[in-house]
């Protein structure tokens, strides 16, 4: 398979980059669009009331953070969500919740 995808890095900087990428609402919506399968850049851009250049910039941020992969087919650029990167985010969120629940449990037990 050819295409460009950031190598999967599970370090804290990688998770931070993914969360920063998703801080922008349009990027979250783009990720939702490509989570169901590969979509062409033009097809993605057609879903938004902003310029194709703006959508292209959002796709670049998502690709550089490792959340989406890009594949070229002729002149088309096709994007899809990287499931392993999304799972990495889910694991980070699960860890946050687990820590919070452990702290809450400790507080209750101390009372």
From TrEMBL:
Cross-referenced InterPro entries: ArsR-like_HTH (IPR011991), HTH_ArsR_DNA-bd_dom (IPR001845), HTH_MetalResp_TranReg (IPR051081), WH-like_DNA-bd_sf (IPR036388), WH_DNA-bd_sf (IPR036390)
Membrane-spanning residues: none
Keywords: DNA-binding, Transcription, Transcription regulation
Database matches in SUPFAM superfamilies: Winged helix' DNA-binding domain
Domain of life of the organism encoding this protein: Bacteria
Residue span, HTH arsR-type domain: 8-101
Name this protein carries in UniProt: Metalloregulator ArsR/SmtB family transcription factor
Organism: Pseudonocardia xishanensis
């Amino acid at each position: 398979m050819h295409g460009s995808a950031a190598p999967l890095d599970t370090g804290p900087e990688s998770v931070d980059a993914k969360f920063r990428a998703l801080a922008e609402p349009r990027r979250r919506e783009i990720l939702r669009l490509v989570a169901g399968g590969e979509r062409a850049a033009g097809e993605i851009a057609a879903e938004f009331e902003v310029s194709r250049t703006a959508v292209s910039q959002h796709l670049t941020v998502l690709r550089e953070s490792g959340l989406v992969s890009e594949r070229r087919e002729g002149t088309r650029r096709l994007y899809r969500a990287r499931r392993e990167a999304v799972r990495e985010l889910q694991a980070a969120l699960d860890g946050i919740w687990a820590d919070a629940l452990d702290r809450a449990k400790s507080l209750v037990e101390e009372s």
